[in-house]
Amino acid sequence: MNRNGAASIVLVFAVLCLSIFAVVSFVPALREDALITREVERVTAFYAADMRAEQIMAQLLVTEELPEYIDDIRIYSDIDWDTFDIWVWFTYPMNDTLELLVHFALDGMNDYTLLAWRVVHVGAWEVDGSLNIWQGFEDDDNAIFSW
Length: 147
Fold this sequence. Notes:
Layout: H1 2-62, E1 69-70, E2 73-74, E3 76-80, E4 85-93, E5 98-108, E6 111-121
Antiparallel strand pairs: 1-2, 3-4, 4-5, 5-6
């Protein structure tokens, strides 16, 4: 009976250890799944915005006059008086905090130079002042360096 009792204790301990290892490995897998889901949403939004920006840019290249809006997207333009190029830029929303910025210069009929095609952050940003960061000495008498 003594052997059976020791074997039962070892078996219970092994099952307990395996259960703990299973839970410990399952929690990071859930976090990774949430991270992958967010990344898939971001990449999908980027390529959808990229495709629509390509369509808007192609539409701008074939028009005689630059429109002010295309499908609720504001089109900005300016003239470079040195080269007489027309600078055109617009942003296309990807989600609540990101937009795709497209900026190009029209050099002539259907000829352009791409100046920018990048994702920009447009969400609200709040300064976190919770860290107590040293701001320096309040008076110059205690300063290490005097300029």
